[in-house]
Amino acid sequence: MSYPYQIRSLEQYHHQYKQSIEDPETFWSGIAENFYWQKKWDKVLNWNFTEPSVKWFSGAKLNITENCLDRHLDILGDQPAIIWEPNNPAEQNRILTYKELHQRVCRFANALKNNGVKKGDRVCIYMGMIPELAIAVLACARIGAIHSVVFGGFSAQSISDRLQDAKVDYIVTCDGAFRGAKDIPLKKIIDEALLSCAFVKKVIVYERTKIPVVMQPGRDVWWHDEIKNVSDECAAETMDAEDMLFILYTSGSTGKPKGVVHTCAGYMIWANYTFVNVFQYQSKQIHFCTADIGWITGHSYIIYGPLSAGATTLMFEGIPTYPDAGRFWEITDKHKVDILYTAPTAIRSLMSYGTQPLQNKDLSSLKILGTVGEPINEEAWHWYDENIGHKKCPIVDTWWQTETGGIMISNLAGVTPSKPSYATLPLPGVQPVLVDEKGNEIEGNDASGNLCIKFPWPGILRTTYGDHERCRLNYFATYNNLYFTGDGCLRDADGNYRITGRVDDVLNVSGHRIGTAEVENAINMHSGVVESAVVGFPHDIKGQGIYAYVILSNSADNTDTTRNGILQTVTKVIGAIAKPDKIQFVSGLPKTRSGKIMRRILRKIAEGEMQNIGDTTTLLDPAVVEEIKNGKL
Ligand code: WT7
Questions:
Q1: Tell me: the pLDDT tens digits for 474-501?
Q2: How confident is the model at residue 255 (pLDDT cuts 50, 70, 90)?
Q3: Span from the CA of 398 to the centroid of ligand 1 (angstroms)
Q4: What is the best residue among 302, 372, 411, 509 to mutate for testing ligand 1's pocket, by most ligand atoms within 8 Å of CB?
Q5: What distance separates the 2 farthest-apart alpha carbons in the chain?
Q6: Backbone phi and psi for residue 142, each to the nearest 5 degrees, phi listed first
Q7: Beta strands in 175-297 (DSSP E)
Q8: How far apart, in Å, do the first and last CA atoms of the chain sit?
Q9: Could you state, in order of their start, the residue ranges of all structural domains in the chain?
């Protein structure tokens, strides 16, 4: 495939950027011409950020899977679409060509239909990283069902909350999932979640680990039975440009995760455009994104971006350190990976094993490296550059969010300059602004402020499922006429952007977004807990760790048993990813006279900053601050 819209020089970048800002509709309709439409659009863009309402390519009809599969069959039919590498290196890898993937998607789409799934129904997908996860996602898109993938690390309770919020009709899961040395009993967790979700009609189960499962007659069916005797052709449903494609839950500053909604046309174009340009994808290259499909990174850069571009995408079932810390490098050599896209937390974790796992690894197939999910510290950046890229591979530091659908600020590999710890420049179509507390735009370079975007791009979220007002309040109400990202940011003398981290009550732990309120809610469910406050603190590998201050109803219970009990409660309510790294028992929390917890103080103490914690005279009980300082872990 060729990509006429691939930017090949710095000069071209500046030119395209300028065009995209001066005349966005002409710019994006030019890009859209490169896709397959059942019917073209009447209007490129309608928008206002007050409702908010954003509509791209109104009137157009398409199916994203025709763009990801059908249109490639003639020329790329026998090329690998998905290369799958199992958790255990002793097991055979699998390769699915575009033809095979097309057949399997159609077949499973027919199986979904036979089970009653219709256009607009919500399908929750809770599976490990196997090709059938990608097949399930694409099969939903094929028939116009809205997929909502839930990461395999979330607990039964988290799943149940999401099922209820999205009013999910159908579930696709596995018996279990292999992840490192663990075997996660996915179906058992689904069974527990479904105790409170009787509205779910069917559960389709793919057999992966062969762990025994209980199948509820009438509700639960096996994937392998359902795909027997069904056709491997399935006409793609006709979708409106603005029909929902998927819902993906993400944490915010309130206790309840929100269902970010992306729609068909705009998301497709954004995932594809950013993939082709940021990674400078060239035909036949192998693209290895190490994220899980349970996160937006997997949606956009394992499935939709690469497949819509006719690329070969490598999907890995396991974790970077199993069976040893050389696993990524072994996979890279085995499949001659060209592009490696991973998270700073993975780099830091692998760095901690030294260069021994790199011995006898070649890595010469690598051409481009990428990072995503959190700010990358300079040390990790240089380690990646020297030990993995051998100083020959451009590194793209890609800033974006679940809500943005795809990459927003990043250098383009080898085309625009990189600068360690800077995401650098906005992609065409992205208009970043920095604002002060009052919402005034800070103009000029060498500035810092809260990062907002002042014009819609095709991949912007359209709503939060079932609660549009929440979408407005969260993203469009803080500053007039701006999309607010929740991130702090600075702009250097050359206009490069550097993301400094969240400015709201959201933590970024190992690149995973976790709301402090969610963790507090979970901790408070432990019977011995009266109240808690959670903040982040700098963590060498995770980027941010979770520090919990907890008040017990009986202070004599301040034992490790209680600590473990709290950790278990959090694991049960949210999942292991939200377990606090530190739990400090306290007799009180610093509160203002109106009862508001002064998180600023707690954050300073958790960071080890004991001197300049600011004014404490307005506190209800200033003495509690001394006690907390003395008990710091
Ligand atoms: C938050 C979004 C984007 C997919 C993975 C995370 C942080 C993301 C970077 C980066 C600095 C980054 C931001 C953002 N973030 N990429 N390159 N440099 N920070 O998606 O869970 O929606 O989290 O991750 O704080 O707001 P997410």
A1: 999 999 999 999 999 999 999 999 999 9
A2: confident
A3: 8
A4: 372
A5: 74
A6: -60, -40
A7: 177-179, 182-184, 202-206, 220-222, 239-240, 244-250, 258-263, 286-289
A8: 56
A9: 10-489, 510-630
87: left (phi over 0), alpha (psi -120 to 50) or beta: alpha
Q: Whose CA is nearest to atom 27 of ligand 1?
A: 401
Q: What is the DSSP letter of 482?
A: -
Average pLDDT along the chain: 97
pLDDT in the model for residue 621: 86
Question: What is the number of the ligand 1 atom nearest to the C-alpha of 423?
Answer: 17
Amino acid at 111: A
Asked if 251 and 513 touch (Cβ cutoff 8 Å), the reply is: yes
* pLDDT at position 594: 86
- Please check the confidence at residue 361 and state whether its pLDDT lies above 90: yes
**Looking at the whole model, is its pTM more than 0.85?**
yes
Average pLDDT over residues 580-604: 93
Q: What are the backbone angles phi and psi of residue 256, rounded to the nearest 5°?
A: -110, 125
With a Cβ cut-off of 6 Å, ligand 1 is lined by 250, 295-297, 372-375, 397-402, 423, 485-487, 499, 502, 508, 513
> Ligand 1 centroid to 410 CA: how many Å?
12
pLDDT at 613 over 90: no
| Domain 10-489 identical in fold to domain 510-630 | no
Rounded mean pLDDT, 181-194: 97
Show the tokens assigned to 78. Answer: 């026998």
Each residue of 38-76: b (16+ CB within 10 Å) or e?
A: eeebeebbeeebeebebbbbeebbbbbbbbbbbbbeeeb
pLDDT single digits (tens) 83-139: 999 999 999 999 999 999 999 999 999 999 999 999 999 999 999 999 999 999 999
Q: Is residue 586 left, alpha or beta, with left meaning phi > 0 and alpha meaning psi from -120 to 50?
A: beta
- CATH no. of 10-489: 3.40.50.12780
Q: Is the CB of residue 456 less than 8 Å from the CB of residue 54?
A: yes
User: Percent of the chain having pLDDT more than 90?
Assistant: 95
Ligand 1 center to residue 399 CA distance, Å?
6
Report the distance separating Cα 17 and Cα 209, nearest Å.
49
DSSP 550: E
CA of 93 to the centre of ligand 1 (A): 31
CATH of 510-630, one of 3.40.50.1100, 3.40.1280.10, 3.30.300.30, 2.30.30.90: 3.30.300.30
Gap from CA of 251 to ligand 1 centroid (Å): 12
State the distance from the centre of ligand 1 to the C-alpha of 242, rounded, in angstroms: 25
Is the pLDDT assigned to residue 617 strictly greater than 90? no
Q: Which stretch of DSSP H or E encloses residue 264?
A: helix 264-278
Q: Quote the pLDDT of residue 17.
A: 98
